[in-house]
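ingest -> validate -> predict -> emit
validate: passed (alphabet ok, no gaps, 234 aa)
predict: started
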Amino acid sequence: MKRDIVITCEHASCDVPPKFKSLFRGQRQVLRSHRGYDPNAIELAVELATRLKCKLLQGSVSRLLVELNRSIGHRALFSEFARALSEPEQLELLNTYYIPYRAAVEDEIRSRIRKRRTVLHLSIHTFTPILDGKPRIADVGLLFDPAREQEASLMQTWQREVSKRVPELRTRRNYPYHGRSDGLTTDLRSKFADAEYLGIEIEVRNSLVPSKVAWKKLAAAFESLASQFRTSNG
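emit:
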């Protein structure tokens, strides 16, 4: 079975459409922080998609307006700012930004699976080095579902190889979040079988910027590993 790669970046942007800007009056600093988007995530996503010549889908609005990486009904779907909106306005956000984005990702993956291809979905994120006063003890996180054999095996290899190729970065599996927590990849795993879909969240410390040598080495390592996956036998 042939193998494809699809890359997404849910928190690519901190943009807020003009209609909703009043919600964030005086909150520019918050929007520009890790709360509003994932700093440096889209740069890594674009770099990998360019190197791998694969499809990239990205979110277009701030996660503080609507959280593309949470399920409908999740308490974090709407931030404290967006919760001030009326129900029709929240529904408008879902219909304009959330549902089309999630449907586009699912359709992209489904179309490839229908062509009898196994899809590796890399969802690119970044995390703040310190959260609630507690330092995170990693630079790179590989999030997956341990119950899905292909994901678990692949991420064991990727952790070993990334650590070998970029030893100055601490790489951990299912850190700083659990790979089975609510999110886009978790939702897609419920729709596609283990044999046809691997949903991996890549989390990188957001203070690691594209101008750094370690960032470039990390991008090269991910490119190499993804290429190996695509060309290996299913």
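The mean pLDDT is 97.
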